[in-house]
Design a protein that fits this description.
Layout: H1 2-17, H2 30-37, E1 43-49, E2 58-63, E3 68-71, E4 77-81, E5 94-99, E6 105-113, E7 117-126, E8 129-138, E9 141-144, E10 150-157, E11 163-173, E12 178-183
Antiparallel strand pairs: 1-2, 2-3, 3-4, 5-6, 6-7, 7-8, 9-10, 10-11, 11-12
Length: about 190
């Protein structure tokens, strides 16, 4: 019985070590890995960071076609969002990585469209993927501060015509597991 068990363990270990589907994402170029699996995709933005403190990098990529991918530390490719495309002549889509607490980093993707709108989608990393925690549009812009606070600048229109600049502030709450808004929030 011990010999059979030892043999099964050896076979299982051999299969795991030499299994070509297992990839250590930290040793592979993320662009190459994505383009190998999806040959029609061309990476335009790429960032690598350890999001969960395990000393292994996760890779974040946006492609020409507007797809946002995560390659987790195990090499699993996850499509997070489609249609991340800025209008021509405006800033290209971008990936932002920022600290919301001592132990937690978040990822935000921003892209722009006319006349002056900025879309921001913020995510936290959990269970090998990114979970959307905030989606806002600032028709006068969006800014991520160094402390992880997000500012949304938007037009608050008067009933009689015209508008004033309004500012909403979003702060991450660990206890509520969401962003909490304050200031002038859009209706």
């Amino acid at each position: 019985m011990k010999r059979v068990l030892a043999l099964l363990c050896a076979v299982a270990m051999f299969g795991f070590i030499f299994n070509p589907s297992y990839v250590n994402a930290s040793t592979v170029n993320p662009k190459t890995l994505l383009e190998k699996k999806f040959p029609r995709e061309r990476v335009t933005v790429s960032k690598s960071v350890d999001l969960n403190g395990d000393n292994k990098k996760e890779h974040l990529l946006i492609t020409e076609s507007g797809n946002f991918y995560l390659i987790n530390s195990k090499g699993v490719i996850v499509l997070i969002k489609e249609n991340i495309i800025s209008d021509d002549e405006l800033d290209s889509p971008d990936i932002h990585i920022y600290q919301v607490s001592k132990k937690e980093k978040h990822v935000a993707v921003t892209f722009n469209y006319f006349p002056s709108n900025t879309q921001l989608d913020a995510y936290n990393y959990k269970d090998g993927t990114l979970k959307k925690k905030l989606s806002i549009m600032g028709d006068q812009g969006v800014k991520i501060l160094k402390n992880g606070v997000i500012k949304q600048y938007w037009k608050n229109f008067y009933p009689e015509g015209g508008w004033k600049l309004a500012i909403a502030t979003y702060t991450w709450s660990n206890t509520k597991n969401k962003y909490v808004g304050s200031g002038e929030l859009p209706r």
